[in-house]
Amino acid sequence: MAKPPPAATRKPSAAPTVALTLALVLASAGLLLLLLRLSPSSPSPTPHPHRRLRLRARAHAREHHQIPFDPVVADLERRLEDREWERLAAAGLHAPGMEAAPVPEDLSDGEDYINDAARFNVTRRVEELFPRIDVDPADGAVTGDELAAWNLANARREVLHRTARELELHDRDHDGRLAFGEYERPSWAWRFDDLNSTNDGVGWWKEEHFSAADMDDDGFLNLTEFNDFLHPADTANPKLIHWLCKEEVRERDKDNDGKLNFQEFFSGLF
């Protein structure tokens, strides 16, 4: 009996091979795109993962600004301010008794420095500053009180630096201290004169204010005393605190009885 012919052999399908090849191609393309995206477009010897740091350029003396956290940055900003201060003083553009409002002409050099990771590494600066902040106690952790003390010290240093410039501006005999006759109050303060003539105005920049700031009663203000004179709300001088309280009462005392009722007290709170 003859054997039936063998069944035709089926050819293997190419679909799995094509699918595998396509998957490999897509995976390779995706990996290549990922590498291209992660690679820097313009290689730099000093990469900066953070946003560009800026030095302060104040347009007005009374404009709010933040005190630099890093003393190095604060020193750069003070140098820029001093340079502009000297330029304005030489040109006679300072208003008597007013803090300068410097707008540095060129911030590029200082900003280039603090944005150059090779010369000013932010991470390293934080590591260097940390033990200087962590002092009470030095336990490897910075508390809110320690951070507040650090920021307050930086702010006081900044204010005292500006006071020194003011003292230099008014100190006509250059003896490092200020007599009352040497100080010329801000030009905008003269508008209080009409009020003062009726005893309803403020006594700021008057001789009583000057004498209250004179802690050692020698008739002159040194740098610390002059700083208290300009910023009496921040003083620890008992005489000046007492004078400041008297001024608060006088400003709010509408019926001129030398004391404050509740309405007078409340109206001056806000």
TrEMBL record:
<dbReference type="InterPro" id="IPR002048">
    <property type="entry name" value="EF_hand_dom"/>
</dbReference>
<dbReference type="InterPro" id="IPR018247">
    <property type="entry name" value="EF_Hand_1_Ca_BS"/>
</dbReference>
<dbReference type="InterPro" id="IPR011992">
    <property type="entry name" value="EF-hand-dom_pair"/>
</dbReference>
<dbReference type="GO" id="GO:0005783">
    <property type="term" value="C:endoplasmic reticulum"/>
</dbReference>
<feature type="domain" description="EF-hand">
    <location>
        <begin position="253"/>
        <end position="270"/>
    </location>
</feature>
<dbReference type="Pfam" id="PF13202">
    <property type="entry name" value="EF-hand_5"/>
</dbReference>
<keyword id="KW-0106">Calcium</keyword>
<feature type="domain" description="EF-hand">
    <location>
        <begin position="207"/>
        <end position="236"/>
    </location>
</feature>
<protein>
    <recommendedName>
        <fullName>EF-hand domain-containing protein</fullName>
    </recommendedName>
</protein>
<dbReference type="GO" id="GO:0005509">
    <property type="term" value="F:calcium ion binding"/>
</dbReference>
